[in-house]
Amino acid sequence: MFRSLSQDAPASLVVFLVALPLCLGIALASGAPPLSGLIAGIIGGLIVGMISGSQLGVSGPAAGLAVIVFNGIQEMPSFEIFLLAVFIGGAIQMILGFIKAGIIGFYFPSSVIQGMLAAIGIIIFLKQIPHAVGYDYEPEGSFEFAQDATHNTFSDLLLMMNYTEPLAMLIAFVGLFALILWERPFMKNMNWTRYLPGSLVAVVSGVVIHTLTQNSELGLSGDHLVQIPLMTNGLSDMLTTPDFSGWMRGDVWLLGATIAIVASLETLLCVEATDKMDPEHRITPTNRELVAQGAGNMISGLIGGLPITQVIVRSSANIISGGRTKLSAILHGLLLLVSVLVIPNLLNLIPLSSLAAILLVVGYKLAKPAQFVSIAKSGIRNFIPFIVTVAAIVFTDLLVGIGIGIAIAVALVIFDHVKMKQKLRLKPQLNTTVDSEKKHQTVHLDKVVPFLHKAAVLRKLEQLPLDHSVTVDASHSEHLDSDVCEIIEAFVSKEDRQTNERQFRR
Length: 506
What we know:
A hairpin with a 4-residue loop joins strand 3 and strand 4 (440-444). The chain contains 20 helices and eight strands. The chain is mostly helical.
């Protein structure tokens, strides 16, 4: 795990800087104490990071659960009873992992996952522009299109023109300059930049500018800075225990089950997206991930934290910043813990516009125009679910947008089957011929192989004997979904099987 410390340590710093305002902002948006968001971030890094099989995923409080958490806190008799629901939700997640419910993650089409990443990038970029100019009406961590009847993502871009802060704009500009400069090839070739990431330069420069001007007319008020609650009694101030006297309440169990289901879905979506971004193309064990998330939520609920999921914003920031192993996620959790206990006063000097500069770069990298062009060139079957998912998430929220994207993808699968006069089957017919003498097996694919067959194909391939050579025959397939192709190609190139030869015949 420590073999990539030189890459993981700088990446963990970036993830920490991204996670810090998001933890606080999501807690605020959820109507919860600010420390509860930080606790969830710490547990997501330290506990989930150690248990999870994901090498690049980063967990913490998620915007997708904000509405559920807000309503839950309002409906429960006390915050301590709400924490009991979080604990129960974590226990249910662990059960889902043990019964292997993680296979659901394989039914998300690649085009929809790519659309989710692009949409998140667009949302991050648009949401951070107001913070970059000093308009901090909306708390960090809110990703819904409409905040209320008068505020949405686009209206805030107009309203911000009336509330600009020149110093915030200067700090954001300096931060962006540093981040862009650090991306230039000549800077990357300098060894010292490996230990001094551009994100740290952006933040430190923002702190310096704010400190030098805080007593002037241009100085930033506290509303434009990170606001970590100060603790007088150290760690004991952070901890709130659940009220187990409410364990017989039906509404507590209903809320716990809701948290478990939504958190699991969001986690599985993020796992799929993170694996697609992984430069090493590693596959996260989804059942283990549900167990890890469940353990994290149980502990978070026990000590006063919000529900946890794997989060695409933190995970993508980790990958973009060069993270290689789970050490970066663990270190980011440690940084959160140390910063809250030791240096909250220092962190409260960080302007939100400095952090906005970092997130603007992350958002742009997730939604590069080149990505849209590439997917458009891959064919209409990929582009339609992709662009619908992007639009749906931007104008609604994550889970609703994903649902719409999957519905479109399934509709296209049904259309293909009707067009080819094929009966739609959730379980494909995977005929296998065996040559015992030569220790060779051939897996024959159907005429039509949609993304819905991805899980079944993967399961079939993983069940093949290790000492046999394998041929996957798709020569008779008239439609072979790109998702299934990715699974097969990963199997063919995999190095941990003891086969003599593996082929993919198309």
